[in-house]
Each structure stands twice: as C-alpha cells, then as structure tokens.
Amino acid sequence: MHTLVVGLSHQTAPVELREKFSFDPDRIAIPLRSLRDMKSMLECVIVSTCNRTELYIVADQLHTGEYYAKAFLESWFRVSREEFVPHLYVKTNKDAVEHLFRVVCGLESLVIGETQILGQVKHAFQMALQAGTTGTLFNHLFKQAISLGKKAHTETEIGQNAVSVSYAAVELGKKLFTSFAKKTVLLVGAGKMSELTAKHFQSVGVKDVLVVNRTFSKAEELAKVFHGTAYPWGSLPQALLAADVVVSSTGAKNYVITHEMIQTVVSERKKPLFFIDIAVPRDIDPSVNELDNAFLYNMDDLEEIVAANIGLRQQEAERVGAWIAEEQTLFQEWLDTLGVVPVISALRTKALQIQADAMMKIERKLPDLTEQQRRVINKQTKSIVNQMMHDPIMRMKELASTEEKEVALQLFKHLFALELDNEQTDEVQGKVRPMGQPLMN
C-alpha cells in the first residue's frame, strides 16, 4: 500500500486557478466515491478550502494512483492537465504523512498557526467516513493527525500572537480597554485596511461603527457593511467625540487629525481615545501621543509587533516540528506492524486450537473432573500457551520495523508452520473490496 497526496495550494497556484478546483465540503460524497472507484484507489479523503484542494489517497500502485488522481481532477473540473499539472504537488508515503501533520498544525497555512484548517481537515475526514471511502490506514492516520493538531494548538502559542497589521491593532487595544462591548470605532477614510481593522474590532465585541469620508456616499456605503453611521467630512470633530477607537487611512498628503483638534476632544471626553494611523503618509499628528488620554500607534508600531509575533510563532513552529517527527515515527511503526497482524493472528488461532484439543483429551481421560477442576485446568493451559507465544510475538513486532521484515516474516511462518490464505492477509491491509464498494472499517 502507498499513501500519497496530490494537491494545489496558495504556495503553488494562483487564486484564479485554485478557484477552479473547489469542492463543496458538505456535498463531497459523490466526488469521494468517484475518486475511490478509479483504478488502484483503496482509500481517499478530499480536503478543500479557499487556500488548498488536496486528494489524500491510499493506492496499491504509486504511479497508477498518481496518474488517476490527475485524471480525476481533469475530468471532474473539466480543466486540461496542461493548465494545472505545473502547479500540482505530489507527496508520497512518509512525505505525504508529514505533509498532513504539517497541514493540521497550521504550518502550511498562509498565516502560520491558524486554527481553522484543523476543523476543515476534521470535517473532510468525517465526510469520507460517512461516504465509506476510508479504511484501516486512513482511519488511523487522520485520527492521529487530528489529535496532533489539537495538541499543537492547545499546548503551544503558535496561534496566539497577532501576525497581521489589522489584528495587531486589536491586540494593542486590549491593553487599553478591558472590554470592547460598549466601545465605538470611528473609521476615518473608507479604505480596505480601515474596513479590515474594523472587522477585527467587531469580532471582539465592538457594536457601534462610525464612518467619516471626504466622499459622503462612500462613507454611507461602508457604514452599511457594519450597520453603522456615516458622517460628512465636516463633522469629523463631532464623530471623534463619540468614538473610543479611531482607525485612520485617508491617503491625504497632510495631517487630517491635528494636535489642537484632539486636545479639544480629550478635554471634553475625559476618557481614553485610542488612535490607529495606518495611512502612509500619516493622517494623525504624532504630537497627539503627548496628550493625556490619547494613545497613538502608526504602521511602524504595528509592523514591529507583527514581526515580533511572527518570530514567536516560528519558535513554536519548531517545537511543533519536533512533535511531527515523533508522530511520523509512531505512524511508521504502526504501519510496519500491519503486515505481521495476520501472522500473529494465525499463530494465536493455532495455539488456542491446540489448547482446546488438549482439553478435550483431558476431559475424555478424566471424566470425573468437577466443573471447578475443568475451569482451573482450562485457565492454566491457556496461560501456558499465552506465555509461550508472548516472546515470539514481541520479537516479530520488533522485526516488523527493520529491513529484514520480509525474511523474518517468512521464517516465522515456516518455524510455526502457519498457513495464511490471501483473504486473511488482504483484509488486514485494507484491500478486500469489490471495485466501487466501500472499505470495511
């Protein structure tokens, strides 16, 4: 069996191409079954987000699996291979497992450490379970990956520090205000950065949003986005009086918020006013920061915070990377033991049959045994069998992770005269299913 991932992501393909390969995560059963029914496919999971589309596959032949994965993408989305194959990445076996672990931990995301991808992978796996396209290998691998992702996000701070300018502004605001529930944000200018910053403030509890812009119609348009209030440009001082947080980005060549203007405002308000100047050139006179109850931060301040936080996330990413290496080893050890499972099962079956035959002979030769005596003898003979099997089984499991696995396996079967039919072996490896039928979980 081979594990592979075939995909497109923000790292390899532009959005114009990625959007052509988007699945509806809630309506993915049909494409899952279509992929699984192609030649060489044994198990599959499809992960589809705004930043990535990935086919996770267990195939009986590596190159055939890769070929038909590409054929599936080509036929399902009706996009020629020439258009998407140069942007496609294919990772196999150990590299595929490592990739999945990195994805769920947020190490492959556009923003390192983001948590949304963990829920998206978990949902993708659940959809594949319901569609019947997973089996022994992926049931184990994806559960292990999801557990690792949870650990990465709960036991480290990889996702705790702001790594965007707009969100860094919110983090600064938290140092000034214990709660944003009753705070008002004023947008000076109707730019995209102002809008994005306001959205972040809204996500932490801000209810009221005011907008001032030189073109009043644009102020009204943006105010509608937040169910807020638009002010004409001449009413800027009045809007400042009503605000707690001011986000300014006008594109003006001179200061639009002056020291004198804010001196008047703070003297009337008598409570803190938090300014975020994300304009270049700056919108707000830097001397505003000298006033009592006025706190001003510009782009340099925010970018300094972002750079520091990216460094912190990268440190945490290195810690998570060590965990990923450990989990890879654990998964490989589990995978290596799959081949010996039917052999161990056959040995146990044979040994217990020998014990059962011996009990029948004992009962024939000693017909006067009481029920208690039979139970004692049965228990003790089974104990002897289990003790005799213990060391050979443990040695076989250890050898399963070595290069001599196949030779050791054949020798083990020969020494204990074990006969395995093909169905026993294939069932454990997840290969028993008619084409088009789901794997047994």
Give a brief rundown of this model.
The chain has 441 residues and is an alpha/beta fold. 55% of the residues lie in helices and 12% in strands.
Descriptive overview:
The chain is α/β, with parallel strands linked by helices and 441 residues long. The chain has 17 helices and 10 strands. The chain has a 6-stranded parallel sheet with strand order 7-6-5-8-9-10, sandwiched between helices. A 4-stranded antiparallel sheet has the order 2-3-1-4, sandwiched between helices. Residues 422-441 have low confidence and may be disordered. One of its GO terms (molecular function) is glutamyl-tRNA reductase activity. Keywords: NADP, Oxidoreductase, Porphyrin biosynthesis. Its EC number is 1.2.1.70. Residues 322-418 form the Tetrapyrrole biosynthesis glutamyl-tRNA reductase dimerisation domain.
CA-CA gap between termini = 17 Å
Q: For the report, how would you describe the main beta sheet?
A: 6 strands, parallel
Our estimate of the beta-strand percent is: 5-15%
Low-confidence stretches: 422-441
Class by alpha and beta content: alpha/beta
What is the level-2 CATH architecture name of the largest domain? 2-Layer Sandwich
* Tally of discrete structural domains: 3
Helix content class: 55-70%
* Average pLDDT, all residues: 87
CATH H-tier superfamily of the largest domain: Glutamyl-tRNA reductase, N-terminal domain
Cα Rg = 32 Å
In the sheet with the most strands, the strands line up as: 7-6-5-8-9-10
Q: What sort of overall outline do the alpha carbons produce when their principal axes are compared?
A: elongated
User: Do you know the CATH topology of the largest domain?
Assistant: Beta Polymerase, domain 2
Q: List the helices and strands in order.
A: EHHEEHHEHHHHEHEHEHEHEEHHHHH
The number of E-state strands comes to 10
Number of helices: 17
Under CATH at level 1, the class of the largest domain stands as Alpha Beta
